[in-house]
Write a structure and sequence with these properties.
This protein has four helices and eight strands; from the N terminus they run E-H-E-E-E-E-E-E-H-H-E-H. The chain is an alpha+beta fold. Strands 1, 2, 3, 4, 5, 6, 7 and 8 form an eight-stranded mixed β-sheet that branches. Strand 4 and strand 5 form a beta hairpin. 19% of the residues are buried.
Length: 144
């Protein structure tokens, strides 16, 4: 099984990367040494995570944890946000801000995730907001 190493995918010692992709083939089962958030911008397909298949289309947001086995197929445009777990602990979470980070209203949509479920769906204003945020992240990517 293919393993994507963080040193190759998160170049320059950065702890986060934002990458747009166009997918027309099947990516076989693999895993990563980093956290991956996938947002489907257009098209549709299937994303399998730990044996559970999710039908995805515009507005789908998937969370793939460190070393979780997954695959995908379909014809779609998506954005990958790759995050080194060590970067989170070193730069974002400390004893003074961890609770505040997780209780921000921006995280309220994520509270609906059921344990073992990796998919959220956005539409309307929520979808427009997340798409703007991802575009901003891509533009600022050189400065991350």
């Amino acid at each position: 099984m293919k393993v994507y190493e963080k040193e190759r995918m998160l170049s320059g010692g950065r702890g986060i990367a934002v990458r747009p992709h166009h997918q027309t083939h099947t990516e076989s089962e693999h895993l990563h040494e980093f956290i991956e958030i996938v947002y489907i911008r257009n098209g549709s397909g299937v994303h399998g995570i730990d044996g559970v298949e999710y039908a995805v289309s515009r507005g789908s947001l998937l969370f793939i944890n460190y070393r979780q086995v997954h695959y995908f197929s379909g014809d779609m445009d998506f954005v990958n946000v790759l995050i080194d777990p060590k970067w989170i602990s070193e730069h974002l979470i400390d004893s003074e801000n961890a609770f505040e980070l997780l209780t921000l209203s921006a995280f309220s949509d994520f509270q609906s995730l059921t344990p073992g479920k990796a998919l959220l769906r956005f539409d309307g204003a929520g979808r427009a907001r997340i798409e703007r945020l991802l575009e901003q992240m891509q533009m600022e990517g050189a400065g991350i």
